[in-house]
Design goal:
The chain is an alpha+beta fold. The protein has 17 helices and 23 strands. It is about 30% helix and about 25% strand.
Length: about 475
Amino acid sequence: MNSIHEECGVFGIFANRTTHVAHSVYYALYALQHRGQESCGIVVNDDGLFNSYRDSGLVNDVFSKDVLAKLGQGNMAVGHVRYGTTGTSDRINAQPIVVNHTKGRMAIAHNGNLVNSYELRTELELEGSIFQTTSDTEVIAYNIIKERIRSASIEEAVNKAMYKIKGAYSLVIMSPSKLIAVRDENGFRPLCIGKTDDGSYVVASESCALDSVGATLIRDVEPGEIVIFDKNGIRTIRDHCNKVKRSMCVFEYIYFARPDSVIEGCSVHHARKKAGAFLAQQHPVEADIVIGVPDSGLDAAIGYSEESGIPYGIGFIKNKYIGRTFIAPGQDVREDKVRIKLNPVAETVKGKRVVLIDDSIVRGTTCARIVKLLRDAGAKEVHMRSSAPPFLNPCYYGTDIDSRDMLIACHHTVEDIAKIIGVDTLGYLSIENVKKIAGTEGDDGFCIACFDGAYPTEVPEKVHKNKFEQKISENSKVEE
């Protein structure tokens, strides 16, 4: 856990005619690849017939020209890129999930994490449900299907299921005749709606995916809102809206989202620059150059430079053909990947006092490796600034921080951390300022529980990343 792990990315399209909708989903998932690199999948709806393909790997590796051709044409499709925070990363957990039931079929793609998934799964199992995956997405699907059997429509079933599922979920659901976008009451994860020039509607985790298919951003799905797309147009159900305080995950702005995305009306690029400006105000230092750790630290570095007047420079060249460091199995391999992934520009840093901006410090190992690269390249001083406050608490809403054990800030002071990672000074963005990076002064409509411990929902008493596997293992031992 050297770095924060990604979310997942969801996408859906409702076209006004039968066409190669899989191609649009492919381009959109490419744009959302930063949100998950473990697996991906596409389901195409051709007049009620679902054609699907999903596998482990990156979008470009999974979906060849032949695979896309076999998916055929349709007027609707959903897609997903996954980084798993509940369940294993096996192919079986790739999404979208397709479920057959007595009233038809349903495909579902999910971004987020439920806080009552274990309890709901146990309840369903005791009623006879048989699970094929270990992800909480299947728990959501079964609860919707359970309601669908006794409801007049899929949207009515979704509405009823929302009273039971708790936590973070942005969903794209496809029935034989409808596309549905759903966002949890708190609005933890982003979800937006767009429209193409030919009149097709699209739904995506981020607006950058809309751009990739030539769609114009219309608006965000509101927290608690259910948006239905069908042959009659668009309609919404707002029974769950304005029930609780909005709690968008602030890390969408700090790290998860692409800088060219717009979330809740705010440019991610602008939010990161603002974070950098706040850092310059909070933690000024005499220095010669400001550099950022690619990619999510670059915008904050520009903001720090503009606010402080210290010149901005390119400090690292990133190898764009290697995945993010946390993907590598084993610490030794991860450290090798840091060297391969980032190479310092010696001309920029040699003999200079450097301000190094990164999005966050989790375990500290990767930071230490990066600082060493700068020292080896001749940096005279290194002053590190984090555009996030110290991580002190686990996250239950989709970010893969499930324990305090590996969080360096839980066990060391700021001064100690500075020594451990090898910097001359260290400064974090304050909790007060992180609330302001994407809103008005004093705006606190964000979830910052990983920093301050103020969770906006009830949280599980015990959480394990592979908790369902653990349950199965424990049951097996009892039987033996």
